[in-house]
Amino acid sequence: MSKVLVxxxxxxxxxxxxxxxxxxxxxxxxxxxxxxxxxxxxxVEGYDAVVLGSAVYMKRWRGDAKRFLRRNxxxxxQRPFWIFSSGPVGEPKPDAxxxxxxxxxxxxxxxxxxxxGHVVFGGRVPAEPHGPIERAMVDNTPPEHRxxxxxxxxRAWAEGVAAELRTAVRAA
Length: 172
What we know:
The protein is of the alpha/beta class. It contains 6 helices and 6 strands.
């Protein structure tokens, strides 16, 4: 299959766990995969495809993910790549405008470079909150809504990425 980089920017580990699940799913589909923090990646040369993910806070990606996208824009435009965001927690509100979860500027930049897809996965409140704001967020979120990551959805999305990679390899 392909050699794939799954790069991520995570504040409290939730996005890192999603990235690891994506990497494991791609490996199970036959890809050779490296999974690494975006801030530690020096380039994407040597990879056939890239998946980039970031935690989202108030419609903003983490700085390391934004810098990764900016630093590697030319190389990303020359290979298949996908992006994901993670972050929303809490009880879904009926007819709520979910666009607040989208880092629109980043999605637009990635689309201009040819990103093949973007998805927003649910997130998790911090397991060990630091400071009064995080403690209040955890305290005000009912336990059943503290971890909104849907592992079946994450694996299904990664399987879709793997299927596109298989198709690209056969077409080449």
